[in-house]
Specification:
Blueprint: H1 2-28, H2 37-65, H3 73-83, H4 85-100, H5 108-137
Helix pairs in contact: 2-3, 2-4, 2-5, 3-5, 4-5
């Protein structure tokens, strides 16, 4: 009798493991979304608009402080970033949406990580442009 109870629980556990494994593999092998050309264009347009808005904000904010000769350009970039955090977050969200829209559900975490890297690299480039802008304005 004990053998049959053990066999039943072993069989139930095996079925449970197989069921969970199959559900996981289905999620892992789910295809990437198939976006239409219009959807792809809309994502790209949104991303470009958000990046331009962030860059414009940074230029505008840095211009407010560039006349302060005692302020290092890096501090001006830092101050501009503080004033443009909402614009950067909008850009970051657009990047994340762009990167995750084309991958399967199993690849979403990696896509979000790449989006974070991409957005932070864009932030660094924009800071560099702001610093150059301030230096040029001070000449």
């Amino acid at each position: 009798m004990m053998f049959f109870d053990a066999a039943r629980s072993w069989r139930g556990a095996t079925i449970l493991v197989i069921l969970c494994g199959s559900l996981t593999s289905c999620a892992a092998f789910s295809p990437a979304p198939n976006l239409t050309a219009d959807e792809k264009k809309a994502l790209s347009t949104n991303l470009n608009e958000k990046y331009k808005a962030y860059q414009d904000c940074m230029a505008s904010e840095s211009d407010r402080f560039s006349h302060i000769a005692s302020a290092p350009p890096s501090d001006i970039a830092k101050g501009a970033q503080a004033g443009c955090e909402a614009a950067f977050k909008g850009y970051h969200q657009a990047v994340t949406k762009q990167f995750t829209a084309f991958v399967s559900s199993a690849s979403q975490a990696k896509a979000r990580s790449r989006a974070d890297e991409h957005a932070n690299e864009a932030k660094d480039r924009t800071w560099g442009h702001v610093i150059q802008r301030v230096l040029i304005q001070r000449q």
